[in-house]
Amino acid sequence: MIKKDSMFYRFSAYGFLKNLRFFEPFIILIFRANGLSFLQIGLLYSIRDLTNNLMEIPTGVLADSFGRRRAMVLAFASYILSFFVFYLFEDFYVYALAMVFFGLGEAFRSGTHKALILEYLKHHNMLDLKVSYYGRTRGASQLGSAFNSLIAAGLLFYTGNYRMMFLAAIVPYILDLINLATYPKFLDGEVFVFEKNTLWTQTKATLKDFKGIFTDRHAMRSILNSASFTALFKITKDYLQPILETFALALPILLFMDDVERSGMVIGVVYFFIYLLTSYASRNSDRASQRFANLASAINMTFLVGVGFLFIAGLTTWMNLVIVSILVFLGFYILQNLRKPINVAYISDQISQRVMASGLSIEAQFTTILVAIFAPILGALADAFGVGLALTILGAGTLLFYTFVRVQE
User: Fold this and answer.
1) Which CATH architecture has domain 6-189+196-405?
2) 327-362: per-residue pLDDT in tens?
3) What is the pTM of this model?
4) Which of 10, 201, 356, 370 is a Cys-bridge partner for 115, taking CB atoms 3.0 to 4.6 Å apart?
């Protein structure tokens, strides 16, 4: 039975506030409105994820050795700085700088909050509930995304200005920073006092456990499986936006609005329902996993189904079956949120609790490597052949990697 004490609600509040990125449902449309090509958008994603990649291991070690809460506070400070830059400027090269700040925030955050939750469960002898517990707190973050979509649509309607969304997003991020800064100290896990003469010894101790992850075949496969699917989702999920824009402008409704406002309202409402469903999926991921013989079977099957969804979404977009494409994309979103808690639970079974933040950071690092490589490729394909064929090609290509990421119980 999950203990819904104050920390459960604070973990949930973290995810809810974190996902109030009001610009996110329109990010590709924002970039396109400022004259960027799909290739340039892909390059911005690469810059973000390369920054994340370069800083992932150092920040994971820092979190495990010197305080996970401190790492989370630094993450949100970096996010807030990136939002300011996006709000103040409109230029590809300045956007690249903002992506560096954003990537730094991702590096400090990725894996660290999951480690905080797992430390809490360990402290209260509830590790056997990790799929259900993490799934329910993640459900709150998806609920945040749902409300984020409606608020973003309202902001766009009343201001008519995409850039205001970056400024508005600073408010929930300041609230989340305060929430994280006041987490209980025991959630830091086993940490060391930061002293100059013991710094190297402390870091080596963490790195030794960290290195062991790479020599464990089962741990690496679990990490690669999660990373490759998450990367596929991160690369492609925003391409739903131009598909929804096409759908919105074809509808004979809200004709008194201009095209930006009309598409914004429709996109906001559609994303609201998408994230309501993904929130439900996250909260019930433990039930979904119980339908399989074991976690490994659940992970493998959902990987194949997800790649199939992407392939069909691209094909139906190319064939101009827009409604079918949107529905399949919906399935892809739901599947990612069913998979994530299962993946976290499976990975946590493979690695030491002491280096949990570092281990989950390795998963995030592989994700960023794949995003950095394939985001510009997908952008170039979309510029050359259109969004539909680009998604189809990427989906078919990902299927070829399944043999290398298939996990075992």
Assistant:
1) Up-down Bundle (1.20)
2) 999 899 888 878 877 777 777 776 666 666 566 667
3) 0.80
4) 356
